[in-house]
Design brief:
three-stranded parallel sheet; five-stranded parallel sheet; alpha/beta; TIM Barrel
């Protein structure tokens, strides 16, 4: 609600005014995919920009920012490297196939560098993010007339009876990373076959495609093994998800910096994670990134990125919203992120 109000107020200001007040050293917009039609495994999760809309985003961003590669980020944040314009660090999460079929040709045409964060367990379409599975299930619900079997399965999962039609989606989207058996049971009840979908649609990049992207100069980063919500994991599990996914990139993709993007959010991450991976004279990871919008931190090895797919708006509108929200937080002293230090 607060962000929504902030977005509305932000649109009353010229972009140059907000930009001048914040004077961002670097902005980091990120997307998941670009497509003329949202794939079923994404359609219920967030809006998807068309290629034409994405190109308009790039035109605005290039007008105000200078694209950089991931290895420049710590240098920009520390002040060791400067540019004529504020820096632009562009990235994509989850490693969907449209990166190769749509996104890369657009970026290559304009000479824009980008980083693609992938989850090893999904590469080569071996498995699928649990929320993508939920989106597939929802896509089936509208055509699924006999819901008796479905409500029976949901009843067994929740322990409730007499589940109404208006409760079905809430129950389904209440499932998480650790509810794979329940998600599979629901899929079976509505006739969704995840294995077949992965085989026929191949929503994710293959290792060969990732290697091709790397050979063209694009950077590949780690996005955890299984894309869980880190706040729900133990400290040991968080360490494992980071380390194993970074190791996979290092072992499979030549000449890559050690990069990690937190899935969903870095909010709730055990503060010891940052001390373990990036707070030392010899950091284990070159750069970690989050998703909290424009929000500076105390370290040059962590960068919050701006989620661009909250709603289908222009890049100008989206950045105005983020810069104004930052200014509003500055009034109450909440404009910097301590990265959960002191938490266990």
């Amino acid at each position: 609600m607060i962000r929504g109000l902030s977005h509305s107020i932000a649109q009353l200001f010229p972009y140059k005014v907000l930009h001048g007040m914040v004077r961002p050293r670097i902005v980091a917009p990120f997307y998941h995919t670009v497509s003329n039609l949202a794939p079923l495994h994404i359609a219920s999760l967030y809006p998807v920009y068309t290629p034409e809309q994405f190109e308009r985003h790039l035109e605005f961003l290039l007008k105000h920012f200078e694209p950089i590669v991931s290895t420049d980020v710590p240098l920009i944040l520390s002040g060791k490297k400067k540019s004529k314009k504020p820096a632009l660090f562009l990235s994509f999460d989850d490693g969907f196939k449209e990166i190769v079929t749509i996104v890369e040709p657009i970026l290559s045409k304009r000479g824009i560098p980008a980083t693609f964060f992938v989850s090893p367990n999904f590469v080569d379409n071996r498995d699928m993010l649990f929320r993508c599975k939920l989106s597939l299930i929802e896509s089936r619900l509208s055509d699924f007339k006999d819901k008796s079997l479905l409500t029976e399965v949901l009843g067994n999962i929740t322990g409730k009876r007499n589940i109404g039609a208006n409760q079905i989606k809430n129950i389904i989207y209440g499932l998480g990373h650790n509810d794979s058996d329940s998600i599979d049971s629901i899929a079976n009840a509505v006739g969704v076959n995840f294995t077949e979908y992965l085989k026929t649609e191949q929503p994710y990049l293959t290792l060969n495609q990732i290697l091709t992207l790397s050979s063209k100069g694009y950077t590949i980063g780690a996005h955890s093994l299984t894309h869980p919500l880190f706040a729900e994991l133990t400290f040991e599990q968080q360490i494992s998800e980071v380390q194993q996914s970074v190791d996979w990139v290092q072992q499979n993709i030549p000449n890559q910096p050690k990069l990690f993007a937190f899935p969903f959010t870095s909010h709730g991450v055990d503060g010891r994670i940052f001390k373990h991976f990036i707070d030392s004279n010899e950091p284990k990871i070159d750069l970690m990134v989050g998703t909290s919008g424009y929000k500076p931190t105390h370290t040059n090895r962590f960068l919050h990125r701006i989620p661009m797919e909250i709603s289908l708006v222009s890049a100008k509108s989206r950045l105005k919203s983020e810069l104004f929200y930052y200014l509003a937080k500055a009034l109450v002293g909440k404009h910097n992120d301590k990265l959960g230090y002191g938490t266990h």
